[in-house]
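Subject: for your reference before the review

Hello V.,

The reviewers asked for a structural picture of the protein, and I figured it would be easier to keep everything in one thread rather than splitting it across files. Below is the amino acid sequence we used in the manuscript, unchanged from the supplementary table.
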Amino acid sequence: MIAKFSPSLMCMDLTRFREQIEAMNNYAAFYHVDIMDGSYVKNITLSPFFIEHLRKITDVPIDVHLMVNHPEDIIPMCIESGADIISFHPETANNKIFRLLTQIKEAGRRCGVVLNPATPADSIREYAHLLDKVTVMSVDPGFAGQKFIPETLDKIRKLIEMRKEHGFHYLTEIDGSCNAKTFKQVAASGVEVFIVGTSGLFNLDNDVAEAWQKMESIFARETAA
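And here is what came back from the structure prediction:
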């Protein structure tokens, strides 16, 4: 498996927005954009306005993670702004999950869900055939820099088993504290996409291109057989 890395842009230096995006355009598999409403989680971060400006300077797929109580209000704005993949927490949309996934797909975008640490893999079974990506939170949602929750790795293994058993097509992704301390155990789970933020990427060097090379070297070292 070749690991895919998705930098979490809420952790970047926004005063160097264009410089850092252009430096990562040749490396990133996706750009991870967190949108929080201050209600579902007690934080407010990026926005569809941010996506609109990001779209102007990159062809890298923009992957939006909605941490909001009413994803139906934000999804149309994300589509209009140029998002490629839109994921939400199923707990926020229990009475409208199929409708929202269909809305995203009919707009020509990819869709996904994000599972909190205590949300079981089996909870997505009824609509897993519609999903392009399943993200597993390895920290509680809402804030960067939290302690890694190792119990979430079994969920990734379960999701991969479900995919093989039923022929689902979703990518698996992990979000939260992916860095030198966790790369080895996370990679062993079989997950395909690693979201990297402050500790995993941006704090490694002031020059984000150098930080990326250091991250890849650390990942190779920690996951070597």
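For the response letter, the relevant points are probably these. The mean pLDDT is 95. Residues 208-223 form the longest helix (16 residues).

Happy to draft the paragraph if you're swamped.

O.
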